[in-house]
Write a structure and sequence with these properties.
alpha/beta, Rossmann fold, 2 domains, four-stranded parallel beta sheet, 10 strands, globular, Cysteine synthase, TrpB-like_PALP, TrpB-like_PALP_sf
Length: 310
């Protein structure tokens, strides 16, 4: 029995894909993070950054917390702040799933919605969201979690990496490649560093081909929530990083339904993009190797859109 719902974070399953991976390819393992309390691996990050701020004395009892976010970070911060008793202001946009905005409000957060350009996620949108955060910090004396630079996030995601190590080693599996799309890059850096401590791995960062900032230096509009914010994220430098690759955004969206219907892995667009990237790597490597990736969140966050209409 847990003494707090915060202790329910983590301990998620690692699943071998069997039907969407082609014959002759390497094995593909997926860390399924939808079982966290808000249905996202961002719960790990939110707890780590709040408790890190508490330890340093940067966050006083009852002080307001603020962040701008595409949704899952906001939901996770709302959950953690609700349990710990901190008021929370979230700046987000109508470009992101309504389920996420409603979850933030359900946990008691004040939500400011910045209009997007036709529902598209663009670099300029994040600039305008940041302006709203600055206003709230000045007006309320709020503590900004600053997820794009906050290295406390690596503490939470290192636990995810250590879980993968324990699960694979316990099954006699050696991880050759870890791949994942990056937003703030905290998860990619934290997990790849933890895996590297257990042995040499190849770490491959993924991004949608519609916004190839890491691979071509060119940001662009896209519809993959939680990743590709139009910058090369500073936290990318905090973990092993061997290569960046693009994944076709439409192919990723098309993978969401077969991933659910054939494998029972129910996740959003970023998770589907991770799986497509992992399968591409698995084809190249062939039998006898293992690729690991992450399904960041549950597909329940995306039911009002058209992701699962096919």
């Amino acid at each position: 029995m847990h003494s707090s719902s915060l202790h329910a974070i983590g301990g998620t399953p690692l699943v071998r894909l069997r039907r969407v991976v082609p014959d002759g390819a390497a094995e593909v393992l997926v860390k399924v993070e939808g079982g966290n309390p808000t249905g996202s691996y961002k719960d790990r990050m939110a707890l780590a950054v709040i408790e890190g701020a508490e330890r340093r004395g940067a966050l006083a009892p009852g002080q307001r917390v603020v962040e701008f976010t595409g949704g899952s970070t906001g939901s996770s911060l709302a959950f953690v702040c609700a349990v710990k008793g901190y008021p929370l202001s979230i700046v987000t946009s109508d470009a992101f799933a309504q389920e996420k905005l409603r979850t933030m409000r359900a946990f008691g957060a004040d939500v400011t919605v910045v209009p997007s350009e036709g529902g598209r996620i663009t670099p300029e949108l994040f600039v305008r969201m940041r302006w709203e955060v600055d206003r709230i910090v000045e007006r309320e004396g709020a503590f900004w979690t600053d997820q794009f630079h906050n290295t406390d996030a690596l503490t939470g995601y290192a636990d995810l990496g250590r879980e993968i190590v324990q699960q694979t080693q316990g099954s006699g599996v050696t991880v050759d490649v870890f791949c994942a799309a990056v937003g703030t890059a905290g998860m990619f850096a934290g997990v790849s560093a933890a895996l590297a401590q257990a042995g040499r791995i190849r770490a491959v960062a993924l991004e949608p081909n519609s916004s190839p900032m890491m691979t071509a230096g060119t940001p662009g509009p896209h519809r993959v929530e939680g990743i590709a914010t139009g910058i090369v994220p500073p936290l990318l430098a905090e973990g092993p990083f061997d290569e960046a690759r693009t994944v076709d955004e439409e192919e990723a969206r098309e993978m969401a339904s077969p991933l659910a219907r054939q494998e029972g892995v129910f996740t959003g667009t970023a998770g589907a993009l991770n799986v497509v990237g992992a399968i591409d790597l698995a084809r190249e490597m062939g039998r006898g190797h293992t690729v690991v990736t992450v399904a960041p969140d549950t597909g329940l966050k995306y039911l009002t859109g058209n992701l699962f209409d096919s």
